[in-house]
Write a structure and sequence with these properties.
Structural class: mainly alpha
Distance between the termini: 30 Å
Number of helices: 11
Number of strands: 0
Oligomer: single chain
Order of helices and strands: HHHHHHHHHHH
Number of domains: 2
Helix content: over 70%
Largest sheet: none
């Protein structure tokens, strides 16, 4: 079989996978689960802000540990992992679906490159979170901050590792800035088909995205900033992840109020994920 035939078969398989009703329903479960994780992170951030933390990190690992400690928590973690894996497969299907645009020129190629890059990043995020959920479901989960510090220390030992950590931090800062822009400019509305929704529902989607995306972008930007600072100081302990970013916000002037606002925003993003599961994606 020729190379073009192989790619064509892969693209066809991607289209069938992306249009699969089973995969679509599982992906919707994944979006709801992704929203639940953000709501739990927001709750942990509020507890941190008001001095009522229960010892859990205000990040993904803390959210999953909180869920694992609830009745039926571990079966729910398995369900979350399956939904997130389905989301990752859905995004992988999107990569192949935009394959033809990559060999085009002009705006078509630019759009295909953007869609492909976003889908790859999202797929990686969903897979990482799914693996984390499985670890907590099997009793092997650990703090994300500790894990990130260990990984950062390992990268420091590579040739040019310090530069790699710094670049990764700057990339995260850039992603955070983009998420803020995406929220403020309401570009997220371009990804959802709201043509058949009533005005009240559309207004709710706009408000949730307008609050949620900038809050998540601010938190992610701080994570990147801490990672870049770890590279500058050559100190892996500085790479403390999302929990470290939350504590940095708390330590700032008016930190309690700022962290509360960020927590509310992250909760809004979680609610936005629920809405996102309800409405189809605009291509």
């Amino acid at each position: 079989m020729s190379g073009h035939g192989t790619i064509g078969s892969a693209a066809g398989a991607a289209d069938r996978a992306g249009n699969s009703d089973v995969l679509e329903h599982l992906a919707r479960v994944g979006l709801v689960a992704y929203g639940v994780v953000h709501l739990l992170i927001a709750w942990l951030a509020l507890q941190l802000a008001w001095g009522q933390g229960g010892g859990q990190s205000a990040d993904q690992s803390g959210a999953l540990a909180t869920l694992a400690g609830q009745p039926l928590g571990r079966p729910l973690l398995w369900l979350l992992a399956v939904g997130l894996i389905a989301l990752a497969v859905w995004q992988a299907a999107e990569v192949l679906r935009w394959r033809s645009g990559l060999v085009s020129s002009g705006d078509a190629r630019k759009k295909a490159l953007g869609k492909t890059a976003k889908s790859i990043v999202k797929a990686v995020v969903y897979v990482v979170l799914a693996v984390l959920a499985i670890r907590f479901a099997t009793g092997g989960g650990q703090s994300s901050a500790a894990q990130q510090q260990q990984q950062t220390a390992g990268v420091f030992a590579w040739p040019g590792g310090r530069w790699l950590v710094g670049v990764a931090g700057l990339v995260l800062v850039g992603v955070g800035v983009y998420l803020v822009y995406k929220g403020v400019s309401k570009r997220f509305l371009q990804e959802i088909d709201l043509a058949q929704t009533p005005p009240g529902a559309r207004s709710l989607v706009e408000k949730l995205g307008l609050v949620g995306y900038p809050a998540k972008g601010m938190a992610l930007g701080l994570v990147g900033g801490l990672l870049a600072y770890a590279a500058v100081t050559f100190d892996a302990a500085r790479a403390s992840g999302l929990d470290g970013a939350m504590r940095t916000i708390l330590g700032a002037p008016f930190g309690q109020v700022l962290l509360t606002l960020v927590a509310v925003g992250i909760a809004a993003f979680g609610a936005f994920c629920f809405v996102r599961a309800r409405y189809p994606q605009r291509t």
